[in-house]
């Protein structure tokens, strides 16, 4: 693995598990120092039913070749976020990569319910946790980047199209963070800072593996139950794609857009931990059909190519 991020300083907000953990470790593989933030630490688990901690993530970053630093932060608390970046500035003096992956919303999503049946308190909490936290974090992280007029801000989303994501609030959250990448990119257009949104494919997160009753060692046993699982990817796959973006000296040209792990993997020659290159996009298109004419019109007229394509209705894969 290249060490082209050695000396770089990164913050991965929401690094406890899933994509956030994979992104943090992948940045470490390339030599970065990574502040791994989240609410669950050893002896104080914040998410019921989960055991992962940011301490474990930081240790994996170090084991991969970087330097992992665990910092407990509730990213909905501005005082805690401010203190995080004051610490980064004090200890490291710079910030090169900021990844917004705060989510933790699985318990707050009512899949199968129409919007007029939603629990509004849970829905409001999800918007605060998975969107507003990103705004707070970027607000306090960006000034560190602006001093050097360089860096990369990544919004982690679900899907690279305008297709509906199966639940009104879930859809609102995941499209909103794409819009954050676009809006921040516009406001940062005269700087050297790039902002992008990135989606994984069918992610083999800790929760997803448990849903299917398998582990990473025997995950293929779940394909009989869910054939789409055959093209799933580990959190390291999207992590390595984001690490490749961070190491790309021309990343500014990508600012304001949304990208998928499978497309970035082809462009940067990224492989998953088992040496494969999963392509959820190609699998999805072959199984559920190509983009609709409406989708092509949206692509051309609404977002200047920010979104890739719009597909017809498709089954939601949760647990990312």
From TrEMBL:
InterPro entries: NAD(P)-bd_dom_sf, SDR_fam. Coiled coil: none annotated. This is 3-oxoacyl-[acyl-carrier protein] reductase. It comes from Sandaracinus amylolyticus.
């Amino acid at each position: 693995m290249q060490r082209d991020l050695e000396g770089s300083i990164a913050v991965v907000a929401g690094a406890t598990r899933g994509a956030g953990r994979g992104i943090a470790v992948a940045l470490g593989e390339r030599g970065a120092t990574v502040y791994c933030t989240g609410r669950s630490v050893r002896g104080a688990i914040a998410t019921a039913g989960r055991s992962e901690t940011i301490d474990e993530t930081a240790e994996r970053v170090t084991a991969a070749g970087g330097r992992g630093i665990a910092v407990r932060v509730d990213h909905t608390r501005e005082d805690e976020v401010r203190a995080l970046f004051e610490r980064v500035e004090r200890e490291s003096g710079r910030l090169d990569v900021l990844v917004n992956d705060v989510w933790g919303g699985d318990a707050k999503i009512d899949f199968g319910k129409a919007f007029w049946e939603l629990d509004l308190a849970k829905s409001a909490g999800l918007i605060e946790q998975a969107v507003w936290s990103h705004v707070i974090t970027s607000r306090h992280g960006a000034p560190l980047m602006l001093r050097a007029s360089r860096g990369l801000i990544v919004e982690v989303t679900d899907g690279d199209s305008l297709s509906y994501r199966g639940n009104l609030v879930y859809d609102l959250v995941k499209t909103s963070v794409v819009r954050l990448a676009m809006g921040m990119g516009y406001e940062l257009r005269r700087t050297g800072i790039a902002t992008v949104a990135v989606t994984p494919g069918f992610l083999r997160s800790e929760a997803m593996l448990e849903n299917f009753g398998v582990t990473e060692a025997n995950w293929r046993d779940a394909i009989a139950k869910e054939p789409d699982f055959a093209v799933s990817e580990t959190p390291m796959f999207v992590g390595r794609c984001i690490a490749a973006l961070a190491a790309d000296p021309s990343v500014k040209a990508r600012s304001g857009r949304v990208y998928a792990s499978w497309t970035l993997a082809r462009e940067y020659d990224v492989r998953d931990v088992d040496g494969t290159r999963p392509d959820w996009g190609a699998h999805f298109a072959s199984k559920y059909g190509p983009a609709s004419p409406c989708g092509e019109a949206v692509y051309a007229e609404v977002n200047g190519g920010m979104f890739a394509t719009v597909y017809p209705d498709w089954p939601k894969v949760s647990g990312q």
